[in-house]
Amino acid sequence: MLVNRYINFILKRPVTVIIILLSVTVILGSGIRKIEFDNSYDVMMPQKDSLYLYNEETKKIYGNLDNFIISAVTSNENIWSEDFFRDFNNLVTDLEEYKKYDEVKETIRTTALDGYEKNEKDKSLNSLLEVFSSDPVFQRAISREFSNLSDERGSYSSVSAEIKGTFTGNRNSGVSDKSDKKISDKEYNAFKKRINFINDIKKSETVDNIISPLTAKDISGKDDTLRSVDLVDTGEDGERILPSSENDFKLFKERLRKNPAFRGALYTDDAAGNITDFALVVKFTNTKDHDQVTREVSKIINSYSGLNSIIQGVPVINKYLSDYMHRDLVNFLPPIFVVILIVFFLNFRSARGVFLPLVTLILSDIWVIGLMGHLGFKLTMLGASLPSLIVAVGSSYSIHIVNQYYIDQRVSRQSDKSEGLRMSMSHISVTVILAGLTTFLGFASLMTNQVTAIRDWGLFSALGVLSAVIISTSLIPAIMMLLPLPEKPVKKDQTSADKADLTDKLILKLTGVSINNYGKVIVATIIVLIISIAGASRMKVETSVLSYFKEGDYIRKSYQIIGDE
What we know:
The chain has 20 helices and 7 strands. The protein is α+β, with helices and mostly antiparallel strands. The longest helix is centred in the middle third of the chain and has 35 residues, at 314-348. The termini are far apart. The relative contact order is 0.12.
């Protein structure tokens, strides 16, 4: 029989089996570094459905609303002030760097950075900023990066207090009062890596347009001709001429209110008609991945402490989902493993009974997630549950095998360890394989679903189950074959209730209740089934992305504020 040959091979060549499993783990595990997250709406849609295809064609013609970051910008003090407009203009100018890549300017910056690194022994933030005294945009970029060197990916959290001081201490130059901070070689190398990373983002020219009161155009009529004019005039040097006096502010308000299309698009006002917020809209190109540029845009917006900004949009929601998925994987997996360890210990009360099943679960997770990375699949919101799912489902296979080994250990003690393991595996492997096969087929059936996320989740859940079965039926007997027999029997051969442990006594008690009251049990089961069917018929399908977030979450709050304004 094929199963018996498989068992004999494992027991005769345990070292070979372990080497093979570890080699596969190393190869597949290298794919974990390639794994990416995908929280886009597309993966939750039936992509062959006619309505979905029609919607995609509509996006091509009229534009894709999923490509916008929308920010409501106001002031902590007074929106109609020279300081506010200077900050707002600096913010817009910083973002415009991502709209059209200026290779000459970036080459000059990179050359200057290389020269500074080579010639300056005692590096400091002040001396570095002095090198770029004629380039205030890059000065601000330098200050931002040194404020957050520890986070290479960027984040949505507000930047540190030091960078906030950068834009309040000296608004013209963007230089902080703390800019005499010394820079180590390690910090400088990390900074240059960040600058190169940002340059790569700029080269992609992912930002298609920036819409704000400072960049918008108005319609002007003269000599029976309509023409497009800048809402904010520019000087001969190409710089925007910002309002600075009371009269300038009054004229700018009039220009905004003169065009009714601007209300609700470029500004919002209160019940009294006073303009309270300006809009800042960053439109991306139709590329699929906006992750990194969204993080950079958000970091730039949040770096201006003099501005009170609230950001929203599908790219922002996707990045929050990605951050939450990263956080949940880190925060939830360790507690799950702790619970599993406790369950293993309570059941077997031995080191090998705890760590052997645990190793099989860890390897199963590595195999599946690594395989996803190698094949180019991305983790979706559903896919993020795969590691926990594999642990939950796969643990039962390991428990069955280890439990059977301890039940049959008397054979190993009376005759031969190999014979005892062969008996245990012969008793339980078919059961484990059949249980794994039915679970595998159940998950694999989801591959017929039209929704990409569900289809991928079904595929890799099935592969996860298959991995758990292969590893548990191979690794556990192979290691057991190499380990000496326990000095004392870990689990007795229980044939009566007086020899049973707490778990067995509980099971015996429940079994007795069921047998003695079988009629009541059947009636109770039918009642619960009827209630469940009635409840299932009242189930409502929720498709709103906002439902993924808690009531007090930033995404819900910002969505409400942006929507109201």
